[in-house]
Every structure is written in C-alpha cells, then in structure tokens.
Amino acid sequence: MNGSCLNFKNPIRDAISRIRFAPFSNNLIISSWDSSLRLYNADKSELRVEVPTEAALLDCCFESESVAFSAGSDGSVCRYDMHVGTSVTIGNHGDLATCTEYSDETCLLITAGWDKKIMFWDSRATKSLGCLNNLGVEVESLSLSGFNLMVAVRSSVYIYDLRNCHESVQAKESIMDIQLKCVRSTHNFEGFVAGSTDGRVALEYLGQSKSKNEGYAFRCHPKGKNGRQHLVAVNDIAFSPSNDSVFVTGDNEGFATTWDARSKRRLVELPRYPNSVASLSYNQDGQLLAVASSYTYQEANEREEPPQIFIHKMDDINIRSASASSSKDT
C-alpha cells in the first residue's frame, strides 16, 4: 500500500476538520480551522481553488462535483460554487454548526450544531425547511445512507427516515457505555459502525439484515505491556466502496487501521502518522484512501506538527483477501 503526501504551495494554516472525495472524481474538499475550504485534484496533485470564509470550518460535504457546503464555528452554513470559488451563507445555527450531510434522494442539506438542533435546508434557497429540536443534547456525528439518517448522541445512535423525520424509526441506545465520537453507515444500510472516545468500535446490524452476524464491539488497540487499556478517541471511520465488509478507523494517536467486518479481523495497520488522524475518505471506487493527519484540539498534550493529507493507493491483495475471508464466513 503506497502513500504520498499532498503538496500545498501555501500550507494549511490550522487543524483539518474534514476531508471528502467528490462523488465521481478524485477531487478532494478540505475544511479547516484556518477558515478556508479547499478543493484539491488528487490526480494532478494540484490545488484547484481555496475559498476563504469568516469562521473556522468544522465540517464539509459535496452536493455535486462543483457544489459543496460547510459548517462554521459562528453557526453559519455556507454553499460554495467550486468552479468560480465563491460562497454564500444559506442560514445559521444558534451556536457552532458542527456536522453537515447532503441527501441525493431528497435534495436536502442536513446540518447539526451545538444549539442541539438538526436542521434541513433547501440548498437552492437561503431558508431552513424545518428542524429537529427535541434532542436535548449536542449531536456528535451524522451519517446518511439513502433515506436513513443516523445521529450519534452521547452513547446512543438514533435513525430517522428523511421522508418522515418527526420521530426516530429506530434507536440503538447505549451501544457503548461512553461518549460516541463518530458514526458511519454501511453502504447497503445493513447497519452502522460507531467509534468511541475510549478507542472502542461497535458494529450494529439493523432490521432484517441479510448478515448472519450479530453486532459486536472491539478495541482498536490491545492492552499494553503493563496490562492497561489503550484509551484514545476514534476520530473517524470510512467504509470501502469496493467491499462493503471493509472499513478503516483513524484515532487520536495517529493510527489508521483497516478491518474486515464479517471475519472480525484486522487487515492492515498503516504506519503511524505525524499527528492525530482527524478524517478519512475513500474515493468513489475505493482505490484511493485519503488520510488527514492533524491535531484536533482534543487533548492538551497533542502533537502539533503541520497538518498534512496522505493519499494511499489501496493494495488489491488486501481487498481480495478480505473478500475471500468474507465468502468463507457466509
């Protein structure tokens, strides 16, 4: 598995909050605490555009190849035209806006913030179409799969149907006895994976899943030589588009590890990164994995090396071995 570091003529000046590959190309958007949204062409190794804003950017997502959104520390929700490098504020949360997802099925933008609301936006207009304000606590993470919206709150995950968002259609309460950090859906919505602040990962299957496996949880790192648990936050999780059993986790000590959900085994642990792994993203065919190495402002003694982004070409041998082990388990 080969990796290369992206080069920026003007380095990213503060922590990276999120990276995401475009729907159909190897363009990568990057949101950062330095208040800029960047679009990077991974094929040509060049920065396409950098759009400055007024606030630190805490999340970002694509609507299409040329349109993106961000969530800002001032509560702003912004829409970007990446062709011309312009942005417009479409609305605001009452506190920090922390999460953003775009639904192709409903053409809605979904955002969450510290005002304890999930808001729904018509991306073509500067108005909110409604909100969920009965959560009572801040949302830690959002994830979309089709019409299903997954919401990580404290130690629980709630699932909403975007066609009727008044009540959650399913709840997985206290899937771990500690705060969740991120939640990510499987591509076929058989279930989801959630990462915690103490280094654990839980996989949950939903409804009448075709899988014969039941949900389970595990620690990303074994006990140390002194017998103590390795407690470090799992910052992000990404599923491979080329194999719905394979996912990668990234933690606050700079480790990224690929796993096979069906065979319940670790596939590859990448060499440790200079900083925490802040965000992960596969491209559309799963052949590239982007890893953002950046401090995350979670711990007082975090390493503060300059933020970097690494692109890995996924080793086909590892993917085939995962497929083979998955077929044996079915």
Characterise the protein shown here:
- This is Mitotic checkpoint protein BUB3.3.
- Keywords: Repeat, WD repeat.
- InterPro entries: WD40/YVTN_repeat-like_dom_sf, WD40_repeat_dom_sf, WD40_rpt.
- With 330 residues, this protein is mainly beta.
- It has one helix spanning 316-329; strands at 2-5, 16-21, 27-32, 36-41, 46-52, 57-62, 67-72, 76-81, 86-92, 97-103, 108-113, 118-122, 127-132, 141-145, 148-153, 156-161, 170-172, 180-185, 191-196, 200-205, 216-219, 234-239, 246-251, 256-260, 265-269, 277-282, 288-293, 308-313.
- The strands form seven sheets. A four-stranded antiparallel beta sheet has the order 1-28-27-26, with no helix packed on it. A four-stranded antiparallel beta sheet has the order 2-3-4-5, with no helix packed on it. It has a four-stranded antiparallel beta sheet with strand order 6-7-8-9, with no helix packed on it.
- β3 (27-32) and β4 (36-41) form a beta hairpin.
- The model has no long low-confidence stretch (mean pLDDT 89).
Secondary structure layout:
Elements: E1 2-5, E2 16-21, E3 27-32, E4 36-41, E5 46-52, E6 57-62, E7 67-72, E8 76-81, E9 86-92, E10 97-103, E11 108-113, E12 118-122, E13 127-132, E14 141-145, E15 148-153, E16 156-161, E17 170-172, E18 180-185, E19 191-196, E20 200-205, E21 216-219, E22 234-239, E23 246-251, E24 256-260, E25 265-269, E26 277-282, E27 288-293, E28 308-313, H1 316-329
Antiparallel strand pairs: 1-28, 2-3, 3-4, 4-5, 6-7, 7-8, 8-9, 10-11, 11-12, 12-13, 14-15, 15-16, 16-17, 18-19, 19-20, 20-21, 22-23, 23-24, 24-25, 26-27, 27-28
